[in-house]
Amino acid sequence: MSIQAEKIRVGVLTGGGDCPGLNAAIRAVSKSLMLNGDTEVIGIHQGFLGLIERRSQQLTYSDCSGILDKGGTILGTSNRANPFNYRGKDVSNEVMAYYQELGLDGLVVIGGDGSLSLGYEMSTLGMNIIGIPKTIDNDLLGTDRTFGFDTAISIVTDAIDRLRTTGQSHKRVMILETMGRYAGWIALHAGIAGGADVILLPEFPYQVDEVVDACHRRMSEQQFSLVVVAEGARELGRDLTVRETIEDSPDPNRLGGIGNVVKMQLESASDFEVRATILGHLQRGGSPTAFDRVFATNLGAYAASLVAKKCFGQAVVLRNNEVTHVPLESVAHKSKLVEPNTLELKTALSMGICFGTANINEPFSKP
Ligand code: F6P
To answer: Which of 91, 222, 279, 351 falls 20 to 30 Å from 201 in CA-CA distance?
Structure first.
């Protein structure tokens, strides 16, 4: 960790959907900067909304203490404040002016793809940005993993375990819908961890008869069946199931409801008794796992070291178990999806888990 000599002033914001580990990251960035140099840390309220509405506060060391295990974010967040389209207007210049008035030397943006992309766009106007990726969805390109994901899959796995006992008792097909937007990482990992029979992912549109066949097989073997459906999953030839549309958000579509669609499809194609559960925001709430606390702390401390070196325009990432940095531009406006050669997908296929389609490449190649 380098010790900087001159006094600097750094902003921190959390943008996009909240996730467990945000407070651990805020704490790590702020405490590292305060402990290792003469730095003032300014917390921006509610992500980019705080820059638009000019809301911020200086953070003290004690503001950042006692928050490691807390869910949510002490700074607040917003996943619909876009400086380039705020209530139909481009207010990016006003946002830049506020950044300058605050006297910031740099801004640490802790966010998902929407916020990191906005951070990159603001960097082209002259803001000194360091990005820290977070999201329960684990869908950011350039990093092997995002914090928040481990906590989310633990919560989903616990839910699957609970659905199993009630599904077993009643001999039902139990469907669990997970979050994850356009990526199936949560459904895939939690589906494996929870022993799901069927996992439906956004990346591979499903066919109802494949799902029905898999449930029939499992019902005859074990008299119940567990189906995990990612919110972005869709039947082949059908559109996404959109819960609501929020026009000025960086991503206007809020997905949700496919679990009930699959329930109706199974009921009309079989005699199964089916129940669907949508886990929703429970996946984002509460205390982070130990893994996410350590991971977010690693990323936050590394971001502080980049600030101290004035190495801006970078995103802090995990690559091959090392924390490092890559140009922000290389992660902005991009996402990472499950692919046919994803390890967990191949593992699941080799374990006989059904993905609702025969159109996924062979699992592990035979020796
Ligand atoms: O990106 C995180 C996430 O929880 C997604 O998994 C989900 O689709 C979305 O945010 C929900 O957004 P909101 O909190 O606006 O309903």
So the answer is: 222
